Amino acid sequence: MTFIRSVLALLLLSLLGGAGLLALGTMLIPSWQYGGYAVLICNEAVPDRDLRERLAFRGLGESLISESSQWVLLDAFGGLEQVPLDIYPSRILPFDPRNDGYAERLRSFFVRDGKRLVFIPRGAVSPGSLEKRIAAAIEGIPHTVEHLGLGKPLGLFFVFFGLALCILLPLRLLKSRPLPRMGQFLPCLPILAALVLDGAWGFVLAAILAGFFALLREPVLEWLAMLRYSRRRGQQTPSPETADIRQRFFSDVYEPFKSRWLFSLLLLLCYPLICVFSKISPLMAAAIIIMFAGIMIFSLQVFSQPRIRDYIRFSPVPLLKPPFGFSFLWVMFPFGLAAILAAIIPLFWTGSPSLGAAAVAGEIIITENEYQTHAAFQSSFSRRSLDQKDRIPGQAGYAAYILDDDGLVSPAPFSPMETTVLSTDIPPFPLKHLMHFLAAAVPGRN
Question: Which alpha helices (H) appear in 237-323, and where do they start and end?
Fold first, then answer.
């Protein structure tokens, strides 16, 4: 493959890899973590399903959280059934023993004080843009839109990333042979751009990977040159160079650059620690570092290959240890500065939300334990006695219930195998992300 074709393949792979990582990161980061919520407030008399249909027309119906999007588990004497919350009152009478009160508590979160609340994950959409879409969708219905947790301004973070690159180029021009080094590093930038999704911690990881590149650039170049030389000599006649390639790696690549390998290992150990501390998705973190290492090696291989077919690059044998300083810190500096800006400026950029999480949540934060208690009650209802004194399995008077072929409910004899209180097919708690967001935002809740 010619040099030009290799460069084009490298750039194409880099751009596709960066785009794929951005798509993966967008899917893995939940909306409650980086975008907050817009809360649509209107009169209780407005049907919730009507609101959903109107908002769906503007592309907002699938992700919003409201009364009709929730459901309550119900023991139907033949299995658990998910009953939509807005039709639950017409399905179950108040004195039905299966009514454990969970539905009323759940509805009081969305409908209170004569107002209906609809939660719309905002993602990376600006508050102003989202308000315009909502107003166009429910035109004619009096409403207000408040915002919870304005989250990470991703557009601003991409600006910080661009500024870091603008600072990086002049810094590299102060060094010797800056253009070849920048050319080797440029294909790695689309991979680093995916870290913007993680905010300030993402820029810290970008600084670590940039320093990792600067430290290992020369050792990897020597390694690639050694492999290329050994391969060409081996194509002609077997030689000692091809037989002791492992020994040559330690003598020509590892020993002269021992300090660089050590510092790069320390940076590599910092990478997972920061990912764990900042709660970055392990899948995203692993995908980025694997893709970065692959693009890095590919780039160094492409830009170090000889331009003439029969030419072999001269690799001098170092008589002294190559000088090693902390020049790699200059490569990390722009991304470190961007991390500081990404941590400080958004506090003034987004402002304070107009509606506090405490005002929305009030005393109504439904925990996952409440949901699990509700699920356990419903999954074991038909195998449990209605009389408190008969709750012990095997005691006289214990009754189980089955659904007959004629559609009627009849008692069934007790079986020790029917004492399971929680089915394995219980769906996960649907409000986990929203309640986690509110609990973290309300003082004393987390």
Answer: 240-243, 245-248, 258-277, 282-304
